[in-house]
Every structure is written in C-alpha cells, then in structure tokens.
Amino acid sequence: MKHILRHGLLGLAVGGAVFACVPPAGAAVTGNLLVNGHAEAHLCTDDWTAQTPTPGWTVVRGAASVACWSGFSYMNEVPVLPTGGSPGKALFASPGIDTSIEQIVDVSAAAEAIDKGQVAFSLSGWLGGWRDRPEHAVLTAIFLHDDRRAAGAPVVVAGAGPEARHQKTALLQRAAQGMVPPGTRQIAVSVDFPSGMSSFQNAFADNLSLTLSGDVRALAAAPPQEPKEPKGMTPPLDHVYVVMMENTNYADIVHDDGRSASIDERMPFLASLARRGVLLTDMWAAYHPSDQNYVAMVAGNTYKFGPVYYPNYDLSATHLGDLLDAQRRSWSAYVQNMKAPCNLNSDPSGAGWYAPDDQPFAQFHNVIANPARCQATMRDLTDFQGAIAAGGKLPNFAWIAADGWWDGEGAWQDNFDVGVSLQRQDQFLQSTFAPLLASPEWRGSRSLLVVTWDESLGWGWPDNHIATVLVGSPGLLREGAIDRTHYDAYGVLRTIESAFRLPGFDRFDRYATPLNSVFKDEDEQRPHARPANPIPSPALATRGAIAETFGRVATPASAERGQKFVLIAPDDIANTAAVLAPLGRAPDEDAPRFAFDAKGAATIPTEGLAPGYYGAWRVDRADGRPVRAPIPLRVLPSPQVGPRTPGVEIVDAPRADGGTKAIFVREGANTLVRYCRPNNAAAGDAWIGVFPAGTTPDQLTQANALSIGYWLKTPAEGGGPCGEAMASASELPVNAVYNIYLLTNTGAAGVPIGRSDSFTVTPALPH
Questions:
Q1: Which of 54, 287, 415, 707 has its CA 20 to 30 A from that of 125?
Q2: What predicted TM-score, i.e. pTM, was given to this entire model?
Q3: Among its keywords, does the record have Signal (predicted)?
C-alpha cells in the first residue's frame, strides 16, 4: 500500500503491483492513453435521470451516463473539487445498478521495455460520491498478456468514501504509480459506480488518466486518440418493425441465471420468438418515466425533463421519419384503437386506452402540425393488418403500438397483478405479429422485428433493465442466440440507421453500440476472450422477495450478515474461483477462494463480515490473479423489523443519528422497503402505503395511497410474515417528507402496524 500526494490531497493506491518507481533520466512520458478520460468528447446530459452512451468506454454492467456538471444545480448541490485542473462540462456517472465502464489500452508498442521492467505507469482520476452516502467511484487497472491472461496483480485506486469527503458531495484526486509488469500488452482500465439500494447517481468520476514513462517513444509520439464511432454492421434491410410494450421488469419476463435465459411461461408467443430470434439480456431503457424512451429511439435524445406526455412535448427536432423521407423510404406508426388517422385525442374510456403518445411521432411538431403528413403516417392498427393481408403494402419502417391497456400498463393497473399483464401483452404480440411472420412478404424479404419495452415497472432508478427480443426473416439472425452485450435505445436507433444507410443525427446515437452481433453474417470469433465476471444469482439480484405489486424489481446485489452471496459464472469455470475483498482493495494472496460448482455457482458466506461494500473478484486458481475488476456486493446492516418487531423500514438507508432521522431519497429513485407483519395479521389484509407526513389516521386509505403512488400488496412470493417490496418515489413532489406504513384493513382506513419509516424526496430535475 502506498500513499501518494497530488494537488495537496492524499491519494490511495492499493494492489500488489504498486510500488515506488523513478523513471530513468530522460525517459519519455506518454500523454493520457485513455480515450475520453475527461468525458468531454461529445454530448452530456444535464438530466440526471437519463442514461447515455459513454464514448470511448464500454459499459460492462448497469447503465452509465455522461452527465453535465450543470445538473448539480438542479439538486441544489455544489460539489467540492480538487484544487487545480478543470472539471470541463461533463463527468461520468451512473443511474443504473452497480455500473461499470471499461476500456482496454494497447501498450504493445512498448513491449521490449516493458519486458525489461523499465516502464512505469501512473493511474489517476477524480473520484467521489454524494454527501454521506457510502458509494463512491473506484478505478481499477488490470495488466494483461496478449492472450488476455493476467500479467500481474491489479491496481485499485479508491479512497474517496464519505469520511475522506467529510460527508460532502465531492470528487477527490486519487492516484497510483508503479511498474508495468513484464509481459503486459494491454491494460484494462475500469471505473465502478456502486449505486445503493434505494438511491442512484451516488458515485462520480472525471479526469481519468493513464500515462506510461520509460522507453515508450512509440506510444508517446502517437497523437491523442479520439473515441471511435461504433461501426454499424447491419446488412441492408427492406423492413424494420418496432413494437414497444410498457412498464415491465426484465426479471418478470426473462428468467436469467447467467448461464442460460428463457422467457416466462406466461408469455408463450414471446418465448417462440426468442427461440427463432435473439434474446438481448443486457438492454437498458434510457429514462424514467415513459415518453422519453419513445423519443430517444427515434430522435437520439430525450429532450425533456421528468414526466412529460402528449401534447406537452411538441418538439421541433428532426426525427427518424425525416431521415427516411429524405431517402424516399416509407414509414408509418400503427396504434391499436387509434380509429381515425392522425387521431390526436386520447380515449381512455373507449374501446381500449388509446393515447396519441402510444407511439413517438405524435411528439414532433412537423408531424402533428402537417395534417397530410400526420394522416399518411399515423394510422390505426387495422391498417397494418390490412397491409399484411394485401401484400407489398408494408412500409420500410413501421412502429407498432398496443393501446395503454394491452401494452401491459393498463392490464397491470386493473389489479396490480404482473402475471395478468404478461399474459395480455403476449396475446397482443401474437395477434399482431403471427400474421406478419407467416406472410410471404416477411419470408421473401430481409426484415427485422424488434420487440422491446419502454421501462421497468418500478418507474425509478437504479433499475431500468428491460427485455428485448429480435426476430429476423429467414437466415438474417443467429437464431436462438442469447446476446449479453450492453445495449440501449440509442443502439436500436443506430441499428435502424445502419439498416437503411441513413446519415444519423450526431446526437446520442453517434456513439451508441449498434446491434451488430445479432446478425448471422457478423463475425462471432472473439480471440482470447477473458473469463467473464460472475453475476449475482437471480435470488440475489432481485433480493428474492420482490414479487409483489411491482413484480421482480432488480436491485444491487446485497445480503444481510449471515445470508450467502451466490454468484454465477456465465462461462467456463475451469481453473477459476471467486475471492472477496473490501471494495477499493485488491484481493490478498491468502484470501479464501470459493470454487464454482458444476452449475457454475460460487457460494460466499457473510458471517463475520462487517456491513459495507465488498468486491467479488474472479481469479485464476493457480496464481490468484484476476483479469477483470470485481463486481460490488453489499453486506447490509441487521434488519430493524422482524416477526417479533413488526413494521416497515427502508433498506440501505444511512441515518446520521443512528436510526430516527428521515433519510433522503433522490427524485426518480425506487425505494426498497422491508416489512414484517405480526403472525396475527392476515396476509390478505396487510398492505404498505406511502403518505405525506401529517396525514391524519382517517386518511390512511388505499384510495389516498393510490392518489400519490401505489399501495403495495403483501406477503412476499415466498410466503411467511416478512418480505421486501419496492415503493416508487419517481413522481412524488420534491422537498417534502413522506411516511411509509405497514397497515391492516380494519375499516375504512388502514391501521398502522409496528414500526414506520420516513423519507424526504430531494430534487434531481429543475423545478
């Protein structure tokens, strides 16, 4: 362990490869070898509830964003920054669950000097977090041979926790120096952003740098690299069809244990599509709540803050329809129960829940203000069915939409039953697309169908993981494949642009990852692939009990002390094991190693571990070296509710006074709650409600809870008196205090049971 002083601030370097070094006199020094280490290469978003691509970096877990520094002003926060240096306009952040971004630096041009032990490295960055939250960014470097085996021990740069930040929102300069291990040909640099259980956007990074010194003249002479735009490899297509269903969690649709994935049995038609197409297991929506996700997929940006619906978008921006028109390609949006073309009037009480913004093009002024264009392109779903039957009448691009009931949202709201919603969505998909897939036009063309969702059911970060299935006409896709590449809405747009050879927008689509690997002609060979990081087991990833009103909401991997962490290796487990170390530290050589069993699972006990963050590393069993940065795991404090102490509490809620003070929940966050009902309270009568502080007892009704959010059903899927549930705070007014109660129905109003909890919603958006 070595302490290094930079700009008057103490940096912490951890890892067996770190030791004092002095470059030879006259040694060459490279510039920053990291591409876009300063986050300034392209666009940033000042909407901190949005995710974006990260130019130059690959998202390997969660969902990241290039956030504008100006976004702090919406939260009434002025972060403390290192002295010297410039923050620029942007930094790296992460709305998604335990996000990690990575890039691999080729240093083979200095191979001769590296192998002589004559090349030093310096790894540094601004790392930090939010107020007293325990989360903070961690920077890791892994030294790799050209066959992707580890050439030496990892280097971890951390030390930006709440104590180091003096409980303030701050970024601190942190650095590590040492010698590059002989045999190194690549350096994998990653940044990890733990997210927290009931919050998001708590860890930040900026001004990331990797430099080498020594006989590195070839590297030093190279000009600074700019991010490369991912090349679209989509073959030319005749037709692309997109359907975006609504408000459904990935884990409710896809049963994914890391080694295999399948569609829930309540969606047999979607399962048949996955068998003949490609299932994307790491697809993330762009936004909470809904409409921004539609706009992002056809215009390359979200444009508006917070809950905005038709007619309040009215965008002047160009969109996919404009690009298609410029190349004389046809396009239409078909919506169930639109009835008349260009119907701009919502009809929630009619035959279905039709609304103009069931499809994205109603949000653009140059469509809705042009009656002829609007009537030609915004059509009822029956026109799509008629075009299939007629043959040769389908447009090059079609957006197909269920109304607000059949898309899953209304079907769920009728009874808060996720299973009913899944069944109704599947029925719509079958009735709409079975005729298309059986048609001569589908079989005789090069066509792609994208079945995706707008957002997860919880409506709040850090979860916005969504299911997506792609189906291609015969011979187009790698049929039956599971693709674990990270994708988002901008990547779908980039794929459509590539399929039709469109120029793109130079918005967030520019650096988005296109869906290249789903196509059959794409080269599937990836030489010397590193062993993948293990992933949390399904029970750990959803906390095992969140299958109530909001379905299986994904959460950061956490367990109470005494429970077990179960991790799944998604690939060959030969000669590897799992090792646990405090997050921000490299694993010790003598740390216990936990073997993966025949099913690829490693079980890590938590007895004796203090509450806090840990990193789970996958290491080579022979030399103990990892080839990737770890995944974060959280040991939670002991619960405050139990069968003998009933009530409700917010999970993972740090309280400065030890347990009575209201905590802060960021606007747009999911709030995870733990409950225990007494044995004499019937499960069918128990429910959880969120109410403004000061609500009188006679107003603690389910109807009033519905007016500001949703009451939560209990018990948990596993039965028993205790469980967990997610209470959405995504649309609650900010700067207000709310109470969460466990209640029983004994009359018109619910009666609170045992312990209650409270929180204050802090702003994340302009108000």
A1: 287
A2: 0.94
A3: yes
